[in-house]
Amino acid sequence: MVASAVLFGFMTVTIRLASKQLHAFEIAFFRSLFGFVFALPLLLRHGPALFKTDKWGFYVMRCCIGIVSMLAGFWAVVHLPLAQAISLSYSTPLFVTIGAVLFLGEVVRLRRWTAVLIGFIGVIVIVRPGAADFSIASLIALMAAALSGTVAISIKYLSRTEHPDAIVLITTGLWVILALPAAIPVWQWPNAESWLWVILAGGFGTVAHLLWTRALKRGEVSALTPLSFLQLPVVILFGYFLFDERLDIWTGVGAGVIVCSNVYIAHREARLARHVVTDKNVAAETTT
């Protein structure tokens, strides 16, 4: 999880570096393209059977939502300070909690709803609507987080029957196709430096995604979630030295509130999951 968070941070930095020449939408296309290339070795492990699924329609639908989220997120990374863009992306678990209730029928009780509300207070602190330095880019970053929450819900649904590597490979492949129409109107061929950044963005993104899924498979969400926020100090450090960006007090406070809210939500979900497993084991022992 630590490696995943650091690599996601590196990916964000390479996106900003590539934006010196390329539009955010073209960067999203190349990130998808090279991300797919880096994911192809999964076929060596599983073979073409990895593409066999009866849920192609669902994959296409979730990838359409996912590519809009990616385009909006990349645009925000290019037009916002890195720390602010990443901090707002941490609101995704808040939207996931809401979506789990609406689409998966999960039961969320008062304490988790309170954590979600506190998390959105942190979002308001960062965005500061009405302030002199308010930017529409912050709302686009928030939209990207909300759509990313929808994608996370779809992954929960797919993971019930689909192999995690199949989800990564099929999703990345569809993103290449769906990202191209947005990239064509702003297309220009990358120079040598930009080629380096977009290739690294694809590699960092895919490897980080694979590490993330395996971390969640091996460990508890409540223990791993705090480690995922190590992405923030990475982008703060690179933002300072490469782009002369300093963390403002409002982004720092808001990010802290959102992180604490997410950690609590993950902790509660893990505790509830353990209770469900315990209750099932007790029931099984009783019936036998």
TrEMBL record:
Q: What organism is the protein native to? A: Tahibacter aquaticus
Database matches in SUPFAM superfamilies? Multidrug resistance efflux transporter EmrE (SSF103481)
From the Swiss-Prot or TrEMBL record, give the protein name.
EamA domain-containing membrane protein RarD
Taking every annotated instance into account, which residue ranges of this chain make up the domain EamA? 2-127, 137-262
Signal peptide interval? none
GO CC, sorted alphabetically, is: membrane
Q: Where in the cell is it found?
A: Membrane
InterPro entries attached here? EamA_dom, EmrE-like
Q: Which Pfam families match?
A: EamA
- Source taxon at top rank: Bacteria
Q: Which UniProt keywords apply?
A: Membrane, Transmembrane, Transmembrane helix
Topology versus the membrane, per the UniProt entry? Multi-pass membrane protein
- The residues that cross the membrane are 28-44, 56-76, 82-103, 110-128, 134-155, 167-188, 194-212, 224-243, 249-266
